[in-house]
Amino acid sequence: MRSHWALVLAVLFATPVAASDWGQIKPAVTTQSEVRGRYGAPTRETTQKIEGYDAVQWVYEGAQAPTGINKMIVDFGLLIPSGYRKEVVRTFRLEPKHDIFNRKLIVDGWGAPSRIGKEGDLEFFLYAEGLLVYFGADTQTVVAMIFTPPQPLPPATAPPPARPPQR
């Protein structure tokens, strides 16, 4: 069984991956019809208003989730300078099965993160290219991956220069 997952991961990481895409879904590019063509109908679909716009969320779980994933949540509806595009992927979230993604695989596949932080008890990696990865309490196992359009980060603030010694 482990060799099956190793093969799945080898295929996923066989080609360089931009931080903001996975499984042929790219936020701000991929459409509802492309997601449906790749993954079929969602397990459930909900509609909500976000900033006055109709937004749709598709959830794939159980047998309908991609291989190695417990749940995939795809949010549609993106406001861009030219207007609102309700059929375009805004973000998507993967909740992988245990031992599918770990810290080493993330760094091997996506490189060093732009930033590292903590949210509550969970450590996370942030990639400016559009990926947020949360690790479990063991700090090695991935519990969630959130893909977004690129997120330009403000420059890290540098500490003030040291004062020269006073004579």
Structural overview:
The structure is a single chain. This protein has 167 residues and is of the alpha+beta class. The protein has one domain (2-147). The protein has three helices and eight strands. Strands 1-2-3-4-8-7-6-5 form an eight-stranded antiparallel β-sheet. A hairpin with a 6-residue loop joins strand 7 and strand 8 (142-147). It is globular, with a radius of gyration of 19 Å. The N and C termini lie far apart (70 Å).
| Broad shape | globular
- How far do the termini sit from each other? 70 Å
Question: What Rg is obtained from the alpha carbons, in whole angstroms?
Answer: 19 Å
Mean pLDDT: 83
Order of helices and strands: HHEEEEHEEEE
How many E-type strands? 8
Number of domains: 1
Helix-and-strand structural type = alpha+beta
Tell me the fraction of residues in β-strands, as a range. Answer: 35-45%
Q: What percent of residues adopt helix (DSSP H or I)? A: 10-25%
Q: The biggest beta sheet, please?
A: 8 strands, antiparallel
Low-confidence stretches: 1-18, 158-167
Instruction: Supply the number of helical segments.
Output: 3
Fill in the keyword field for this structure.
167 residues, alpha+beta, eight-stranded antiparallel β-sheet, 3 helices, 16% helix, globular, disordered N terminus, disordered C terminus
